[in-house]
Description:
single chain; 456 residues; 0% strand; globular
Amino acid sequence: xxxxxxxxxxxxxxxxxxxxxxxxxxxxxxxxxxxxxxxxxxxxxxxxxxxxxxxxxxxxxxxxxxxxxxxxxxxxxxxxxxxxxxxxxxxxxxxxxxxxxxxxxxxxxxxxxxxxxxxxxxxxxxxxxxxxxxxxxxxxxxxxxxxxxxxxxxxxxxxxxxxxxxxxxxxxxxxxxxxxxxxxxxxxxxxxxxxxxxxxxxxxxxxxxxxxxxxxxxxxxxxxxxxxxxxxxxxxxxxxxxxxxxxxxxxxxxxxxxxxxxxxxxxxxxxxxxxxxxxxxxxxxxxxxxxxxxxxxxxxxxxxxxxxxxxxxxxxxxxxxxxxxxxxxxxxxxxxxxxxxxxxxxxxxxxxxxxxxxxxxxxxxxxxxxxxxxxxxxxxxxxxxxxxxxxxxxxxxxxxxxxxxxxxxxxxxxxxxxxxxxxxxxxxxxxxxxxxxxxxxxxxxxxxxxxxxxxx
Length: 456
């Protein structure tokens, strides 16, 4: 990995940069460099396509847990949480994007970890990115398994559904550049919107009996159940770990904030409307995923429409894990930019490895759904929220006058520290809640055998 630093020659600004051009010298230090004569050109994405990729990755099966979160704490507190966490995610998006523009050599969270914490930081944040991406791929494969099971009335072994879904997920992850995946993501965004609308219409046409008196404005509950209502939207917004990789493949990286605004405004609005409408009509017993609570024909319609979204989201996650390692192996090498046997051989091997690991975990670990929660608590809490504060604090300390810079920008300094504290709280509390759920699942006998062939 190149250790050349963009910031060696200039002091990065802590303010928003001009959106019409990349910072001076950006393309000389950026991981992909100047690509005019390269066979494989990565920096081809426009900001609308980046927005589509972000939405396709983030707005997926995670939204199906949101109505059940409202059932735990009530309509108003649940909606406040969804909107607040969406606004918070927009703020941390801004912090991440500004850090990337000030440090164009950053391609992924591992590179950012190296700047903040040295070699150990690089390895820890790289490992976390790969683990979370693989687990998220497995989560999408399980969502595809559920969808295929509903469509076929669970006539086949669940492992077979998982395998059927894993194959196209792997194939769609194979393109070397995100530009080639972006056009598939357009369809992915369209189908998840349509699926959500179908789900809401199905709930509205077939509400529970006396639905107007079944939903609650607010609900009193214990800490464990209440925190589940926080973790569900936190993890539904969990996609920031991919932002550096996405911005690295943009033609005009300074346009990245436009994509982030599009993502967060759409996701927050869509999540709030979908969660509220579904909860109001299906009531306190709404399942997670919520499509399962619909009448069978509406459940089949919603799941059937959503399948391409689950597939593309899984492909984006596995692509991200493979891309991190591929760039780590071949940074500054011709294998990164040319159609070489070694380059393609390693790339295909990494894609197969990441998808294979996701498949094995999904079918072989009985508590895999809970392990996704642990991985999200450990890593998504930091990547989406906590570590963004550290990025601003680092640049202010190193380039703008250390403690005096923090004093001058006391408001941003305070927000950055609060962001770190919020990430730590979500991490620790999320781990506690998930571990307790695992213990309760074993105590109640809900945990199945590894590689079981259930049809439920």
